[in-house]
Amino acid sequence: MKQFISVNDVKDVKKLIDKAIKLKKNTFKKNKICKTIGLVFFNPSLRTRLSSQKAAFNIGCNTWILNIDSSSWKIETSDGSVMNYTQEHIKEAIGVMSLYCDILAVRTFPGLLDREYDYEEILLKKIIKYSKVPVVNLESATLHPLQSLADLITIEEFKKKQKIKIVLSWAPHIK
């Protein structure tokens, strides 16, 4: 799988859920994947950052974290922009970031100013285009695949109980 942008990117979701449950039960038991995951946050994060970093650690991966705008140059995303030493362009920035990891995991939020623009997922698409390594979507304007996977795992773990009622709801992040 080149990308994990949506749960729909997975050919066999049931198999992925079963594997995740198995990993969850056997945390730290010879799960030495030994890869580096770059965690890039275009927006502030608490739970996504901590849970992604901890999950990577649990399976033997290293991580590096970059908070755009607070611990690096701002990123210019418009094509054809004249840079004049003001910031990094996404094409070069993502290219460089992907040299230092085996997987690039990114979190991008909607601007919440133009619904159609947000739904185009332009920033996420550019990251995928310029990355030299697989991209994992930590959360974007319309998708949150790790949360979706966690929800599916929870449903699988609890569906054996009698008369379980499940309600799934999602709305864009308020920030």
UniProtKB/TrEMBL annotation:
<protein>
    <recommendedName>
        <fullName>ornithine carbamoyltransferase</fullName>
        <ecNumber>2.1.3.3</ecNumber>
    </recommendedName>
</protein>
<dbReference type="InterPro" id="IPR036901">
    <property type="entry name" value="Asp/Orn_carbamoylTrfase_sf"/>
</dbReference>
<dbReference type="GO" id="GO:0016597">
    <property type="term" value="F:amino acid binding"/>
</dbReference>
<dbReference type="GO" id="GO:0004585">
    <property type="term" value="F:ornithine carbamoyltransferase activity"/>
</dbReference>
<dbReference type="GO" id="GO:0042450">
    <property type="term" value="P:L-arginine biosynthetic process via ornithine"/>
</dbReference>
<dbReference type="GO" id="GO:0019240">
    <property type="term" value="P:citrulline biosynthetic process"/>
</dbReference>
<comment type="similarity">
    <text>Belongs to the aspartate/ornithine carbamoyltransferase superfamily. OTCase family.</text>
</comment>
<dbReference type="InterPro" id="IPR006132">
    <property type="entry name" value="Asp/Orn_carbamoyltranf_P-bd"/>
</dbReference>
<dbReference type="Pfam" id="PF02729">
    <property type="entry name" value="OTCace_N"/>
</dbReference>
<keyword id="KW-0808">Transferase</keyword>
<feature type="domain" description="Aspartate/ornithine carbamoyltransferase carbamoyl-P binding">
    <location>
        <begin position="2"/>
        <end position="157"/>
    </location>
</feature>
